[in-house]
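Practice problem: predict the structure.
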Amino acid sequence: MNRHYALALCLCLLLIFAAGCEQTSIAEQEQIKSFQTLQASTPSATPPPSATPSSTPTPSPTPTLGPSSTPTQAPPPTPSPAPTVTPLPPTPTPNPALANFSLCTQTAGTADGGRFSARITTITTTLQPAFERVTIGLAVPGDSAPPHATARCLSASDDPGGAASGYSLLIDLDGWLHDDAFKATTISPTRALSGTTVLKRLTLRSDQKAVAGATLAFGLEQPLPYRLTLEQNPYRLILDVAKSGAIGPSNDMLSLPAPSGAKLDTPLFYVQGGDIWKVTDGSPRNLTKDSRAGKFGDVTALTVSTAAGRVAFCAIAPGADAGDRLATSGLWSMDLDGKGPQTLATQNPSCADPAFSPDGKTVAFTVDETGANPPRLSIWTVTSAGGDEQRLTSATDEWSRFGPQWIDDDRLVYAAAAEDGRSTLFVHSADDTERDIGADLVKGETYKSLGRPLVAPDGGAIAVEGLRVNKAGADLLLIAPDGAPMPNQRQIASGYWNQPLAWSADGMLYYLSTTCPSEVAQSYTVQARSLKSGDDRLVAAGTTLGGIGGFTGIGKGLAYVTLDRAPAGPRGPLDPAADSPSTLWFWDVGGSGARAKLASAQSAIGDLAP
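Answer:
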């Protein structure tokens, strides 16, 4: 009896030990659950045109995460319980009937198939348990190129021909010739759909003065995953729209608090509403509201140096319009509490992209000297104490230079673009030499242009977007200051658009990957890339109907901005809508995993700087 009891006791202890070995951290638990949320609710990649699509998960909303406390057993003294994320319900099993449904822009047929002749013969609706179907019959002459179409969903506010509210699902037939077959299409300009509840109406749009092109527009109350296919023999264009799977707030991990207690270790500065704000203990404070009267107008950009104890910023002249590219602006500075504003640069009529050198002694900035269109921009510097500005770049060559970033106290890297579409990166050194480090990246048929550089804190690496030649989107490249590829690093080329967000103090690069082009939703992942190993770690995953703004590394965490709205067009590049309500967040991603709101505003928050 005693032997059986002892054996049972040993087995229990082994089970307890095994369970303890499989515990995960708070941040890891949240990442895993958020990735499950993404799998259940994120638009899938655009399917290839096919009559028999492959299976993908069904989008569905996932409940918001919330904090709970889980006590941890340990020998005396017993530590305080650590907060953990409330477990999510099991992820729903994907519905095979909704395979390849997504909110991505989708193409049926060959996108560059040229112009074609066709007549719409029938439009029928079919109700399935999981989706509604519209089948559009096409009569295509034997000597015509095959038809092709592109489907995209967008907010009605971004659709010039859309309703006052809701969403539009557009099927663009750009190659449809306005010939006799087109004119023989007898459907009315606006047609009610029989029996459908998700699809509200159908409108045929075309420019009567054009030789080709038409759009079939469907009204929706909310954006729902869809699938567009083209069948042959006979030709039929089939649009399927899911009855469920709308994107909700719980799908956007970056907009969800997680667990409480996120606190800044250092002050954070940002621009909002034309003023500079400072957050220290969770309470934003306006630094320029009272001091700018009669001196300068709206602030458009800033940079901060703790070494100099100063904030340098670009501001337009009093009374000027910040939206006017030709408005006069200048470079100013003040102390970290907003006191003692003074001009730093007055020689030039404009100011943008200010950047402090690591030692805080010099400020680099971009100047538009001519006001020409397209702009001809140049890089200038001035000491942080003020004085004569110094031009660093040529005034006579073909390059427009912008976006300066310091590699060290003596070297700057910046982007450059020419009027003929060429693009590169230059490095300027203390001996007044300029080296083209981007030319090799844009040779051949891989990348047509480069984005703005983002330099690692130690100056040892540069992250930059490379816009693809043969397909839409951008890859993320990591290069050394001499332009050579970084060791142990591969290009980041998954999905649609990849872009650098921020560097951590220890050389970790945070970057954003957007799954596919969509004009209504952005399906994303935030990942951390190690400079030492080249390994990636999933940090966040989700889908948002709003926009994603700027990021900056601060302490062990990230500060970033989310927006209620995004500009019209495919989601991917960080291009905040200036008039969108916004929220500033801090995420202790390298520590406790806590994430909390720092501030909210009725317009965009920008230019974050610790």
